[in-house]
Amino acid sequence: MKKWSLFIGSYSGIKVFVHWTFWIIVGWIFMMHFQMGHGWKEAMIGALFIIILFGCVVLHEFGHALTAKKYNIPTRDITLYPIGGVASLERMPEKPAQELAVALAGPAVNLVIAGILYIFLYANNQLLSISEIDHMGGKNFLFNLMAANLILAVFNLIPAFPMDGGRVLRASLAFRMDKLKATNIATRVGQVLAIVFVFLGFFSNFWLVLIGIFIFWGAGAEAAVENAKSVLVGHRVRDIMINQYSSLPPEEKLENAVGLLQNTQEQGIVVEENNKVLGILTRKELVKGLSEYGAHYPISKIMRENYPRLSPETPLTEVYQYFAVGKLTLAPVLENEQVIGIVDIQGINELISIENSRPKRLIKSMERKN
Taking every annotated instance into account, which residue ranges of this chain make up the domain CBS (predicted)? Predict the structure, then answer.
């Protein structure tokens, strides 16, 4: 279970959670309508509209998740926040065509919803002009829902990370150039747009300032990940695999995990039984478990069961993306279904530092050899 989030269901093995902060926006919409003198009924309809609209956001995220599943990319969960939904894919596709399909799937869902609503409203002669919309109730409800889905689709197609449009732009460029160059171009485009949003926001709507900051930060983060991955090209898990690692059976208590990790640089432990991996427990998850449940709580109750299964030949570019997207710090390495070691984020970061310290000419020479 995710802390501070309510599990509301699952589909195709993908769990859906609602973060507690989501209800703040529902309450805010309710109070806004009520204080404007629209009455209880209008306030309730306004809150219901937001809940249904976020249901459309969930469908948007399932568009991404189910398309990614076609390419054997699992999604851990979908979580709703006040700013929207987040589908936690284990990684993004490397092939441009696949990334393009995954990125476009979300906005396509919103366009389909808007199209269905348009047909229904047209067939029932309920299409309205903008000047006719003055409240949420009655026939305006479905018209507003149609308009909101159109806005969601268009907004998400802004060509800037971390919006879907940023990935669409990168994937389109990657058909003609390498992914790193495509990412850097998409990042610059996104950051220029972010600066424009911030500038316009100071003279119109302050929300544009916040959106601009969000886009600028997201674009920079995406570029940092891709640049780090470019340094790891040619390296595989075997290059940094750690043969000696700490492990415990699932019935052990958290205090025993503390004893193993204390005074070491290890990023976590492998939970295994009869040399079969059942899960992993990172330092962060261990500290969180201790604060919430105490030292005598079983490891099996808080271990992470969703983790990448690595082999010695897995490219480190893939591992880095697994770690970045899944917020992982270690993963087991398997051979013939047996654990032979681990890879941790510290080892990856050290390799990145070493490669970045080499002269560029030497790096290029090594890449040619690989």
Answer: 241-299, 303-360
